[in-house]
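Incident log, support desk, overnight shift.

02:14 A customer reports that sequence design results differ from what the structure should imply. Their input is reproduced verbatim below. On-call engineer (initials T.W.) acknowledged and began investigating.
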């Protein structure tokens, strides 16, 4: 039974935080935003975040001590990625005259996190809604996440098969609290599929935990928790209330963002983020773990949306929209566990940046979500030469020996991706006859279909080489060229059967 005194105090604190006078701005407008675990009050250049005295399967804010610990942890953890946003803590106290005030003397009633208030239009989910996301921003975001993960504290006591298994169990426990919104048969079917998938990759998950891939991550890495600060993508609002949720495999952390982009029909951007991250981190040998991680993330989001629908029972339109979205995420969680056949696509010829954009566009359309592993020759060249991403490659370095090493590196990475059930797109000039023949032989050795796309006329290839290759124009509209490529290699249009 709810404590009437606690409820009265909570209402009093909310009223205090909702009044402009509390911040020294009598009559000032305060905007109130409610989330699953907090209430946020926006005024002027500041935001104040109050933990709600509630408990879920992985969160318990019911005592003042727990809320204080959570506030302190939130500031400390989020200052790793967003020191400009997290200003500190403010205490709410009862003054001698019975009124409420910030800090100073008086009985401690609660705590809030004080933040710098950014423009809501700078949130990446808001940018996505109006079509402002771009390939360059996605590469910057992937770089930001890869750098964050590289420096994050290893937490070997977490993660592995047991850690992901507990995440699956938490989802099931949470689903039980939103009965009537999600289809129970679908929930149970997903549980069965998830358990089978976990058995298949359990050893790999444990090996990753032993080798430092489990770290103190963000934990809730979706577009709504990323904003632009001085033009830089900035991660904020990471999980502070549960080490089990934040101390996770780095690919599981990334999976929430990939799933979010995919659900918004921004598969091309998800593909760019995945590939840029793998290029930076060198973590491409573990793609086999990605489908289950994406599925668990979709299931977690399904619960969050369903809970939102339940809490908006008095607003039927909003509740219905959230319930529909929750059901879609639950269906996606099951779909992500379906097995898909891999293929090898080679994109040869000269084409510059337009060729690269085409490679990522095509990669996004090769199921399963978020698409194929796109392996670019220039990325492999820089790695072999010890150069930073984007650094100029000296012309004198491009020798026949380096070209052979690049080809071998591309095939090795492609083999790993295809063993994990993910297609590979190789973006390389392939100007030498031997390179093209070697790739076709490699595909045969891997027992996967091979599709060669040549930017230019097939007459540029020897007559004996032309089987298996298809000509594509070097320039022109990207969407039209992708549609042509889909027809040549028998790829379903975006969204079909995915």
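02:41 Re-run completed on a clean worker. Output:
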């Amino acid at each position: 039974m709810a404590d009437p005194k606690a409820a009265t105090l909570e209402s009093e604190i909310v009223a205090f935080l909702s009044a402009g006078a509390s911040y020294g701005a009598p009559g000032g407008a305060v905007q109130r935003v409610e989330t699953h675990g907090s209430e946020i009050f926006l005024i002027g250049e500041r935001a104040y975040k109050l933990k709600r005295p509630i408990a879920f399967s992985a969160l318990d804010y019911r005592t003042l001590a727990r809320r204080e610990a959570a506030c302190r942890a939130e500031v400390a953890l989020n200052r790793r990625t967003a020191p400009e946003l997290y200003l500190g803590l403010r205490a709410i106290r009862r003054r001698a005259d019975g009124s409420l005030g910030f800090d100073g003397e008086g009985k401690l009633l609660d705590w809030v996190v004080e933040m710098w208030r950014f423009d809501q239009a700078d949130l990446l989910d808001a940018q996505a809604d109006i079509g402002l996301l771009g390939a360059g921003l996605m590469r910057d975001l992937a770089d930001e996440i890869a750098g964050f993960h590289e420096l994050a504290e290893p937490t070997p006591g977490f993660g592995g098969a047991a850690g992901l298994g507990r995440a699956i169990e938490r989802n099931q426990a949470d689903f039980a609290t939103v009965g009537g919104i999600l289809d129970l048969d679908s929930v149970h079917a997903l549980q069965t599929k998830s358990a089978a998938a976990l058995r298949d990759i359990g050893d790999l998950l444990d090996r990753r935990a032993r080798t430092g891939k489990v770290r103190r991550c963000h934990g809730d890495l979706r577009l709504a928790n990323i904003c632009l600060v001085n033009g830089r993508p900035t991660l904020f609002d990471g999980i502070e209330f549960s080490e089990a949720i934040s101390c996770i495999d780095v690919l599981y952390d990334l999976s929430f963002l990939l799933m979010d982009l995919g659900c918004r029909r921004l598969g091309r951007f998800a593909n760019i983020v995945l590939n840029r991250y793998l290029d930076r981190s060198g973590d491409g040998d573990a793609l086999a773990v990605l489908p289950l991680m994406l599925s668990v993330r979709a299931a977690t989001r399904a619960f969050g949306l369903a809970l939102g629908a339940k809490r908006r029972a008095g607003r039927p339109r909003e509740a219905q929209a959230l319930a529909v979205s929750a059901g879609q995420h639950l269906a996606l969680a099951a779909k992500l566990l379906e097995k898909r056949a891999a293929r090898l696509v080679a994109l040869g010829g000269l084409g510059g940046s337009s060729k690269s954009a085409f490679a990522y566009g095509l990669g996004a359309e090769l199921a399963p979500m978020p698409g194929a592993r796109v392996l670019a020759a220039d990325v492999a060249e820089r790695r072999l030469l010890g150069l930073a991403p984007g650094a100029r490659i000296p012309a004198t370095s491009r020798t026949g020996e380096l070209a052979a090493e690049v080809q071998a590196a591309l095939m090795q990475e492609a083999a790993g991706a295809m063993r994990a059930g993910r297609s590979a797109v190789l973006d390389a000039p392939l100007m030498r006859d031997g390179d093209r023949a070697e790739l076709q032989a490699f595909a045969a050795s891997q027992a996967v279909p091979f599709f060669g796309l040549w930017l230019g006329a097939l007459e540029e290839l020897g007559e004996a080489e032309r089987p298996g290759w298809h000509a594509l124009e070097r320039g022109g509209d990207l969407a039209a060229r992708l549609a042509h490529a889909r027809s040549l290699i028998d790829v379903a249009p975006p969204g079909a059967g995915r």
